[in-house]
Amino acid sequence: MNAEELQGIVDAERKAQQEVRHRVGVCQAAGCLSLGADQVKAALQRTVEEARLGGEVEVFGTGCLGLCDAGTLVQVESREPGHVCKCLYQKVDAEGAVRIVKEHLLAGTPLDDGQADAESHFFAKQRRVVLQGSGVLDPERIESCLAAGAYQALHRALTELKPADVIAEITASGLRGRGGAGYPTGLKWSTVSKAVGARKVIICNADEGDPGAFMDRSVLEGDPHRVLEGMAIAGYAVGAEQGYVYVRGEYPLAIARLKGAIKQAERLQLLGHRIFESAFNFRIDLRIGAGAFVCGEETALIASVEGRRGTPRPRPPYPAVSGLGGMPTLINNVETFANVPAIVTGGAKAFASVGTEKSKGTKVFALAGKIARTGLIEVPMGMTLREIIFDIGGGIPDGKAFKAAQTGGPSGGCIPAQHLDLPVDYESLIQVGSFMGSGGLIVMDETSCMVDVAAYFMEFCRDESCGKCVPCRAGTVQMHGLLTRICRGEGREADLAQLEELAELLKSTSLCGLGQGAPNPVVSTLRYFRDEYLAHVRERRCPAGVCKMAPPPAPHATPARTEVRP
Amino acid sequence: MSQNAPMSPSSAPAVHPSGDKRFKMLDAALRRQQYQPEALLEILHAAQELFGFLSDDVLLYVGTALKLPLSRVYGVATFYNLFTLKPKGQHTCTVCMGTACYVKGAGEILAAVERAHGVKAGETTADGKLSSVVARCVGACGIAPAVVFDQEVAGKQDAATVLKRLEGWMKP
Q1: Fewest beta carbons within 10 Å, which of A91, A202, A559, B147?
Q2: Whether residues A347 and A368 fall in one domain
Q3: ipTM of the assembly?
């Protein structure tokens, strides 16, 4: 494959796209699929065929269109003389599909009902970089991805830039790790490139374990080539010829799309030997996880890729120096790699023009919980929580009041209403006791009990603790015991102090991020919702009405010994 | 076992003594991974897909083929949530307990399944028809609460819709 051949494919695909009058994209992400998106697609194809519109209409599956709550989503792009008009239909079923074909495609009058308002804040306030192709292209056909610009950045890097230039560009862009910790990506790349080793490895961390997060899944399903391209550019920059994608076993569709994408890219020699007729070789293999949250931690992930139990090890040495099989290893998150092609083609300056002083670019968030519009969004760093939740997310449904936003999964915290005007970036979230995390944003209203939420996350960490280090293994059990006791109404005020003491202990002595971050939900809820804890302890009352209190002890009975013992 | 595979004399025989053809398919998976010990997870995934669960016999077979100590194979098989050492029921009802599903009432769904069918999460009914499973997060947070019926993800569920679906499965 060389530049002319690539351009040939791109031109042919673009020409084919221009020859059809209507391009109908049906969301085939997990959310819409569960609402029957595959039947909708089949109904569209069938009706188009019956109406003999075959040459004029292209029906294809796309990645996540964002508004998961209003699935199944169907996007119709109609080519009118002089301009292209776009309609996004929501809540489409098989019947609706027939109507779209008959009224919109055949009669030329778009349906009045069921259209999403493209001018609404949900779309207008977003800025799509990582999700640029998701929902526009057909992730199962590489030609469609190529027509949308896939592998152009890799071509530019291989033909115009030296590896050091690529790293300089990434460093200048200010891109930081999107897995949550926000480590500067350029610095990581340059460490790996300088590390001594005959062979180096790239690993893409697609073990999206945070409950309530589905950004990486959506990127992998909606635009897999963007991630593969980012990995190949990274390989070129640091001098690696082998890459692995470590993807969760719980994401069968993402696995299938990745497998297909790798095969297609290999067929066109966009991966493999002598890519773009340069001296650069790069191959990518899949590694499938088997359900262990701790494998999101980089050293545990490496152990898992090596076919061992996913337990972390002390750092240093960092994987950048000695990782998979002792080789220098670059590990980045899916979204980090997905940002790379945009930086290489668009330039570091353009990328850095978006965002805040220390957090550049955009961030993908998965909106979920008690929010009117659940779904997948991408916004510039520094947008306030209020804009995200109320303008884009449409606020809290059923007239309920906002209580807290949870970010960062089990290592994150709950942000109360008083911090709604906080600009969302890495630093400010840490300041209020939370954490960017991978981008799950779960909204809670007045019907959620914060003690119960803290207990939920602690139970998660207790179950997912790998058991290697004592503070995490035993500490999560102790903290969970105290929290459930408070939820039953059998806690004491001294328990709160004990929780705080244990939290400090776990944070400062655990081996990896799981144990260090596990107390965060407890600490942040104790900080902002202490009155709820006190109501449970002093009045044996759950203000939100979630916790079921144990019957009060008989007045003369000796108090039952409810100490939690390991 | 194929001839070109580097196997010790004590390794698995050409045909598994049980005569079970699925072992032949497992051999194919082992060959595809070139008997690399690093591919243990991939092999266990393949074995579980073939057999439904990982019996001691299968673990032994895999350990021998990859020349790994059984402690290592057993250690890995028990470490990861997706591997199961017990046979699963005919149908599996997986309730997602991710945060979004949890705040929207997944706990009640799970409790309702337990009340109606007498199975706790991770258990199978006595007649082997239904396994109740909890998932950490299936990534369908936009349509929470989500329940996976066998392989099919269903969104916006509640106790009533789930129980109705299970009723259909439990019919003789």
Answers
A1: A559
A2: no
A3: 0.89
